[in-house]
Amino acid sequence: MRRIMVLGAGYAGLHAVKQLLALQPNAEIVLVNKDVYHYDTARLHEVAVGRTDPSEISFNLRETIDPRVGLIVDEVMRIDHDIRAVELRNNGLVFYDYLINALGGAPSTYEVPGATGNVLPLITLNDAMIAHSHIERVLTDYRISRNPYDLRIAVCGDGFSAVAFIAALVHQLPDLAKKFGIPADKFEVHCFASNPKPLYRFDPKLTEWILEDLQNSNVIFHGSSRVTKVEPGTVFAGNQSFHANTIVWAAGIRGSGVVPISGYAQKFNRVIVRDDLSVVEADGGWPREFVIGDVSAVPNPETGRVYPASAQLAIQQADCAVSNLVSLLNGGRTYRFVFKPYGTILPLGPHSGVAQLEDSKGNYTRLKGAKVRLLINRMNKYFRDSIV
Ligand SMILES: Cc1cc2nc3c(=O)[nH]c(=O)nc-3n(C[C@H](O)[C@H](O)[C@H](O)COP(=O)(O)OP(=O)(O)OC[C@H]3O[C@@H](n4cnc5c(N)ncnc54)[C@H](O)[C@@H]3O)c2cc1C
Description:
Layout: E1 3-7, H1 11-23, E2 28-33, E3 37-39, H2 44-48, E4 58-60, H3 61-64, E5 69-73, E6 76-80, E7 85-88, E8 92-95, E9 98-101, E10 105-107, H4 115-118, E11 120-121, H5 125-145, E12 152-156, H6 160-180, E13 188-192, H7 204-216, E14 219-222, E15 227-231, E16 234-237, E17 240-243, E18 246-249, E19 253-255, E20 266-267, E21 270-272, E22 289-291, E23 296-297, H8 311-329, E24 343-347, E25 353-358, E26 364-368, H9 371-387
Parallel strand pairs: 1-2, 1-9, 2-5, 9-22, 11-18, 12-13, 12-18, 13-14, 21-23
Antiparallel strand pairs: 3-4, 6-7, 7-8, 10-19, 15-16, 16-17, 20-21, 24-25, 25-26
Helix pairs in contact: 1-8, 1-9
The structure holds flavin-adenine dinucleotide.
């Protein structure tokens, strides 16, 4: 029996497993993930601000995964393509016939000095829980210290995850103020954007609406303020140094650290794949591996730029990779990956959001406010239904 190994139990890996069970049930399927649980990455900001309990955005893989799948809870250290084996931290070498690499990403600190270790990233469930306890700890400190920097939160980054975090935070501040007995107007939220303003390439009208809404909630945006250095409690950006005892890093992702030590052609640790999502084998032969989700770099054929990482992209890539693998196993050929984006949906706290939806003819519809919340709930349900 051929062994198909899937690395990573995020949206990409779990959707791939689901599709493999449906299309190639007679293969031996092995799933490796470093934690015993899956978490919904697209909802991490809710946990970070304390709005949502971690259990609501995660589930135990042992209790959920189909019993036909061999689950190994362990950390992938390296992939040895020559002998077709994955080296695991505790289990050593595990061999495969075919591989689907869906190891996801890691925070990109763009080599900013001091960033690693002095900021709170938001990439894993553990990160989100650490950010939440940190925020609660500094607010507890404030009650004794009266240090205004305990009430300052600096967010480094100007993309979707930075703005989703800021919006979730400002909606949570009244509750935090009440819980810690701190007047709500004493909090300060600052966003450091390397572009002239956040969401620089998003729809200008929706961006204007979002920024106005957040500025009305006393969020201060520092445009064209690329972060150049971080020290404990201090962000250096533009020509200023700025003190804040909570510094959140939401400035982008790079691929898994396993990539550079496993001999892939890569850019920022994201694997450069062929147009069918496979990677070139060392001997130039039959493809044995597909790379999908945040760990892959797939260019948009229209712009030449790599598609931004998203759950919708990861799920569609999993569909394509599994169809191609099943086709190969049955003596067929592989097909080019074509991404069909349904648009961009951005949550702005628990009751609002914005959406830019695209129809099949490429026409855009803009939506904003409370009605987008229904779409966000549907989107989150679609993500969950794709993986369980
Ligand atoms: C705060 C935030 C909000 C977002 N909001 C949205 C949104 O609204 N819509 C949207 O489409 N996208 C959103 N995204 C992006 C989206 O979540 C990612 O693109 C998506 O999670 C990618 O899926 P993935 O399976 O490739 O990676 P992941 O979901 O990151 O999964 C990777 C898995 O691999 C495991 N793993 C990693 N390294 C190892 C290792 N060495 N060994 C073993 N296991 C390992 C991890 O534990 C994890 O289970 C958001 C991202 C963030 C951070």
